[in-house]
Amino acid sequence: MPSPNLTVSAADEHLADTHVLRLWAQDLDDETQNAIDIFLTNLAAQNIRPDITVTGDIVAIVTTLSQSLQAMVPGHPATLKTMLDYTTRFLADYMLETGTITMKVHFGSGDNA
Q: Model pTM?
């Protein structure tokens, strides 16, 4: 198998200067906002108060959030997936921006953050 060409041609040099637009600097699309609103509204309507704290890498964090929230509100997999997709992208951007490999995340009231 030939080695990939990792050189930047003169025609592509402008790409090296492209700034990365982190997720928090972008507008939230309507589909994602609606999914988050629906999921959180369902939590509130069922009087579910998540209190999830997890420490680890992005895989451990997203897996724990996914499993815990899915168990709390099993009837809304599509909205949960959309919310977790957004959360995953946000965490990945944050970890890249800060050089963080592991972190502690709390999903719930601010009492335990």
A: 0.73
